[in-house]
Design goal:
Order of helices and strands: HHH
Strand content: under 5%
Number of helices: 3
Distance between the termini: 81 Å
């Protein structure tokens, strides 16, 4: 007989863990910003970050519910762990490419003096 466990109690804990991690990351990023750019950067990035993380967390919860519906009581934590690692790796790659784009598009580069390329 397979012992089926109800994992519904873990969904609020999972949500709390993700939100506390996001609050910690946002607080860490705010400390690193200059005071002049603080209001502008918080306003620009907070809406995007909130929308991005709402989508990501909802996808993770949907995957978790699908695993629960498939009755993979032995492998669901392992598969969920692998899916979370893959999603976080994808997010890291997206952020890395955005930083490279900003670096090479002139946002963070120092412009050469006039007449340098003549």
């Amino acid at each position: 007989m397979i012992n089926m466990v109800n994992y519904d109690i873990l969904l609020p804990l999972n949500f709390f863990a993700w939100t506390s991690l996001l609050v910690w990351l946002k607080h860490k990023n705010i400390k690193d910003l200059d005071k002049k750019l603080l209001k502008v950067r918080i306003f620009c990035f907070s809406i995007f970050d909130a929308a991005k993380w709402i989508i990501i967390v909802s996808l993770i919860i949907e995957l978790y519910i699908m695993l629960q519906l498939l009755h993979l009581s032995v492998y669901d934590y392992f598969v969920l762990f692998i899916l979370i690692i893959l999603i976080l790796n994808l997010i890291r790659q997206i952020i890395k490419t955005e930083k490279q784009y900003k670096r090479y598009s002139g946002h963070y580069s120092i412009k050469p003096p006039e007449g340098f390329y003549d």
